[in-house]
Fold each of these.
Amino acid sequence: MRRAIIGGTGVYDAGSEVKTEQLVTAYGDVTYDVMKVEGREIIFLPRHGKKHSTPPHKINYRANMMALKMLDVTHVYATVAVGSMNDAYEPGDVFVITDFIDFTKSRVQTFFEGDDGPVAHVEMTEPYCGTLRAAFKEQAQKSGVEIKGDAVYVCTEGPRFETAAEIRMYHQMGGDVVGMTNVPESVLAKELGMCYAAVGVITNWCTGIEGKHIEGHQIAESMEKNKVKITQTFIEVLKEEIDVNSCKCDRSLIVL
């Protein structure tokens, strides 16, 4: 069994002993890196491509997740870069996602489209693996990663940023942060029975918050502050044995 890290904005260089490989799936080709850490193979998949050339609305989420499944990956950590609409979370802060609200518009969100295959639904009582979330928090204390708290993630289509009116609505609905990539990635992982958890970094205030314009250099600086420690924390957890019976991630699919 292998483990994987999906890197978002600014999280690409995960290790030194790395070899690059490519896999052909039914949904497209996927390029990824393989790291060996104390005998454990960890897959590193750059969500936007190594040169950050793929915008969020064009990411081939199904190909990415199917590639991990074909590589026998059972546990996945992902990073996300987000804007904050919660006064308690400032640029540079690290948080763990516990739930999401989906406002994407045109993305295919399932491997089960009917046709010649079965009709299936995925159970979402716990969208993110509780075992991986707890393990990250425990290791973060040892690694010196300060976690500001848990957060509800609002996913938008992108690539544009949200308007101030949209942010007010998302906040009223219970959202804490806004990003463009965690749906359908997290949903597809659950359909495939993989344990999946996502850790975010606040890169900017959302539109209309603090009355400031969003600027690219601020996003880069916020990611730079934490990316090495977060990635290293992922690796420390993933290289160890994980109790596969402590969650129900591999039993979330309901096939009719």
Amino acid sequence: MADYKKQDNNETQDQFEERVIEIARVAKVVKGGRRFQFRVTLVVGDGKGTIGIGTGKANAVPDAMRKATERARKNLQKVTLLGTTIPHEVTGIVAGARVLLKPASKGTGVIAAGGVRALLEVAGVHDILTKSMGSATVLNVVLATHKALVALKSPAVEAARRGKSVEQLTPFWARRTNG
């Protein structure tokens, strides 16, 4: 019976896709010289709007990956999606990195590179335009993208807050494909 529960637990964990963003060798300067470790940054997501970012640091890469995976799965957050894109334009800022995310019509694809692309793909976004401005530090760019995705608002909630209909807030191309 215990084997069955373990197998069931693995099936729930396997619904998440993992993508390694960066493996970096980092150094701490001490009296006798430098101490090297590895820092792994990765993202997990279910392709349906749930994402998590984790970083792990250890003396060996596999240990750092294990730590990063645990942290990413612990910090899962829900993202608001509108079909295969995002409901509205949003900018995420972390330190010197700024990432602009713009919704795109169906068939556009993911116009992004590096860590931004990996994060958007595991989130389940298939059509989006992005622009990274400022710092090119991979970790900060990914964190800025995550911050922007989490800041997205639901069209229904925003329409109710403004006293408008959902159709007035959705782009014309989103209305055509959905309706």
Amino acid sequence: MIEVRAVVKRFGEVPVLEGVSLELERGASLGILGASGSGKTTLLRIIAGLELPESGEVLMDGRVVSRRGWGMAPHRRGLGFVFQSPALWPHMTVAGNVSFGLRSLAAPEARARLGRIIEDTGLGRLEQRYPAQLSGGQARRVAIARALAPQPEWLLMDEPLSNLDRAARDEMLALVEHIVAESRAGLIYVTHDESELERLACRVLRLTEGRLIGDETR
């Protein structure tokens, strides 16, 4: 379970989140909807441990993981994060990027898991390509595969389909639906496009100017 309790965040004198609270059960799907500057990406980054709150706290399974001045390292939170851009390592092949989070596993287990996630994400013919040789949609697939490879309990996605054409967006939405169903990971999905959430989210939070203005179950 993820709990966000009265989180406040400012950048300098600019308020970004103002007392945001939410609870999310393990395995649930949540969409966070809002315009640019509404605070949705900052909320996701605080949950992930990439930013710290000014006040309030974040808990996972009853344990505080973020509060003012302190946060558990992101890699210890059991999360996979997909950013707005694929953020792939250009010197690594597709296989190298995807297997980056598997370095702590014994080699046979790492190879087996890499093979499964490559198959699930349709990257089998691209394993030895480098990021510069990929299309935008292919690069997004690699980013999703890399986030899922360590089998995270939660998958956090920050507008992962931005700058894709409609056909590529539809293809990627189908992939995310499939992957979330197969992995049984919880999903927190940030977007400004409500149509994406019609397929992905059972629950939608609406943010405006750092405040929650809506909480809908679909």
